[in-house]
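fwd from M.: "can u put these together and see what the complex looks like"

so here's what she sent:
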Amino acid sequence: DVKVTQSSRYLVKRTGEKVFLECVQDMDHENMFWYRQDPGLGLRLIYFSYDVKMKEKGDIPEGYSVSREKKERFSLILESASTNQTSMYLCAYRGGGNEQFFGPGTRLTVL
Amino acid sequence: GQNIDQPTEMTATEGAIVQINCTYQTSGFNGLFWYQQHAGEAPTFLSYNVLDGLEEKGRFSSFLSRSKGYSYLLLKELQMKDSASYLCAVSWMNRDDKIIFGKGTRLHILP
């Protein structure tokens, strides 16, 4: 089975810090996604990537950037963390049948 | 817009059957997914419907009517472990590989 790992399950940062959330998949899947999930708002797409060095904005890209230097790794960057970025962050990759498979998630708290 | 509507919460009894409905905008529709998400965990893929009709996978079945913009997830012989949120998600032809998620239906199972 393909595995998707995220660098941390829980993370606490302070306002203004630069935050890196890492996502790694152990197969050769091209399409990867970053979402955040908040109560009452559901899953919302932040950024996605079709291939190495390619990135596309999702529905809520403001305050975030991404990096895809290698196919297996897709990083989400919070340039200057703010309290409204406290959320559950979920990475996903697209499988062969168009479905998406998720990593375990990172619960980020910004103080 | 590309609204996806599903009930916020439902309650059912162990051993019973429950149907979770999802409606969506039909314009440009490509396919519909159902995911299960237990509290504090990542969503896990359940089903993907592209064509009209019912697809059965053990105790879970998913139905799609493309013309009506309607789907349902049917859970039979409910077990306590089925207590979770169920997410309806849709892909549209003009949005490449991106998926829009509904806000989820929180299902409570009573003994």
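replying to her w this: The radius of gyration of chain B is 14 Å.
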